[in-house]
Design goal:
By secondary structure, the chain is an alpha/beta fold. It contains eleven helices and 24 strands.
């Protein structure tokens, strides 16, 4: 059953076995497993319920419809634009459909250094189930667009390690509007796979449902309270009250908003770690102009990568950087060109000849999340010196790669405009500033803030997502990762949510919940 919160005119009160807050990768994956196990599940989503019929491929309309804060959510210093979906299906609706597993070295780092007791074979099996549910396969060579072919060609010229992504698309038309929802349902997001599967097994979905508090009685989470909203603007107006009573509350609001909900609910952790240990895995855009037409906004925008410079480090899991093909619409691209006036016009006039990539830098926990005095989200993030240096190194490497592929000029997303036309120009990037005045970094993978582990003095939840010190409360999203997963996070989130949901189902069957 689907309840459209924006259409309600009276208060809504529900009772269920498990209430799942959030319908993205974690919430949808958990709801699917729990509903299939016979639990009465209610899924609450703050955003609207939009389908392929609503995806109009216009940035002006889609960014406010599908993204948190119209895709302008930023760290407090404005350095990092933190992109998150806000709709049924969450970020899986607006991501680039790249599917990667947690590197074995990272999982071993979590097991060894953070008391995470997840069996490697169990996690691999959960990852396989997630991939099967989404129809994951390697992107075929003939599906690469011009931009991604250039990336691979440049890496080949330099002798660098490179490959094609795995993805969750079927019968892709190559329209290139992946960041604005797939109008053809070729992207097998949670919206078109996991959520419908949960609904088929009896789950209830409520959209436009903003949860404001987890209800706690007698040392146990017993439900949630909030409001159903009208779907207009960045802070939709409340219409009617919402209350859901449940035996289990499972939070899957993401690494930014799960800790905010816990804080608003005055739920504390003995570890003191709620809202801390944020990783953003920042990404620097780099643009390149070629003599031939690239039309990077057609085809699969992100289908190839170069991981020559990723380094496995047993102390931190992974370091270095990766270079990944990317493409956005004209509005998104215009904001990345570090120029103004005539220079900006000159660059955008060659938009059809422009290729682009992202330098993805695995970081270590260096941020926090809280609400400010007005109740608005405050994301603090300190760019560590080694991350800043790897961003510079990545900009140099990306420029070298594109020059090797035949680019006329390469421009990292830095201000003032820094044009690289040959190897000698690379020295201009040695001392460039990486700060809010000089660039805007992107983050599509916020992680941490409710880290997992068996030691309740250091972790918020245990290795299956059960909250330390409060019965009936579980978390199943990227907030539980102890450090950066150092990769795209959709499959890791779904795998962990799968294990968490199976643990809840087993506990229900044993009547220990």
């Amino acid at each position: 059953m689907i309840i459209y919160g924006s259409e309600r005119v009276e208060d809504l009160s529900l009772r269920c076995d498990v209430v799942v807050v959030g319908s993205g990768a974690g919430g949808a994956a958990a709801a699917r497993v729990l509903a299939a196990a016979g639990a009465k599940v209610v899924i609450l989503e703050e955003g609207g319920y939009h389908t392929s019929f609503d995806f109009k491929q216009r940035e002006r309309e889609m960014l406010p419809m599908l993204y948190r804060d119209r895709a302008t959510q930023r760290t407090r210093d404005r350095l990092v634009n933190v992109l998150q979906g806000r709709c049924v299906g969450g970020s899986t609706v607006v991501n680039m459909a790249d599917c990667a597993r947690v590197p074995r070295a990272v999982l071993e780092h979590w097991q060894r250094d953070f008391a995470v007791e997840i069996d490697t074979a169990d996690f691999e099996a959960a990852s396989e189930r997630a991939e099967a549910a989404l129809g994951v396969a390697e992107i075929a060579a003939d599906q690469l667009n011009a931009n991604n072919r250039k990336l691979l060609a440049g890496a080949e010229q330099l002798g660098w390690r490179r490959s094609r992504f795995h993805h969750n698309r079927t019968e892709c038309t190559g329209c290139g509007f992946c960041l604005m929802g797939c109008a053809f349902d070729a992207k097998r997001s949670a919206l078109v796979t996991l959520v419908p599967a949960a609904l088929a097994d009896g789950a209830t979905l409520v959209s436009n449902a903003r949860v404001e508090r987890v209800v706690v009685r007698g040392g146990r989470a017993v439900g949630v309270q909030g409001v159903l909203t009208e779907e207009h603007g960045d802070r939709p107006a409340a219409r009617v009250r919402l209350e859901v009573a449940a035996d289990v509350v499972l939070l899957a609001c993401g690494a930014v908003h799960t800790p905010l909900l816990l804080q608003a609910s005055e739920i504390a952790s003995a570890s003191g770690q709620i809202g801390r240990n944020l990783s953003l895995q920042p990404q620097l855009p780099v643009l390149a102009v070629f003599s031939e037409r690239m039309v990077s906004f057609r085809g699969i925008p992100q289908s190839a990568y170069c991981d020559e410079h990723l380094v496995f480090d047993p102390r931190v899991g992974m370091t270095g950087f990766a270079i990944e093909g990317i493409a956005g619409g004209p509005v998104q691209t215009a904001g990345l060109v570090g120029a103004s006036g005539r220079d900006h016009k000159r660059w955008m006039a060659r938009f059809a000849h422009t290729g682009s990539c992202l330098v993805l830098v695995p970081d270590q926990p260096a941020g926090s999340v809280a609400a400010d005095e007005t109740g608005r989200t405050r994301i603090d993030y300190a760019l560590q010196p080694d991350v800043e240096q790897r961003i510079r190194d990545g900009a140099r490497a990306a420029a070298r790669l594109y020059l090797a592929a035949g680019a006329e000029v390469v421009v990292p997303a830095l201000r003032p405009l820094t044009e690289i036309r040959n190897e000698a120009d690379l020295a201009r990037l040695d001392d460039v500033a990486v700060n809010p005045d000089a660039t805007t970094l992107l983050s599509a993978h916020p992680q941490g803030t409710c880290r997992m582990g068996e030691d309740a003095r250091r972790a918020v939840v245990d290795s299956r997502g059960r909250f330390h010190g409060l019965e009936g409360l579980w978390i199943a999203d990227a907030s539980v990762f102890p450090t950066s997963a150092s990769t795209h996070t959709m499959i890791p989130i779904m795998a962990f949510a799968d294990l968490a949901a199976r643990s809840i189902a087993q506990a229900r069957a044993a009547r220990t919940i």
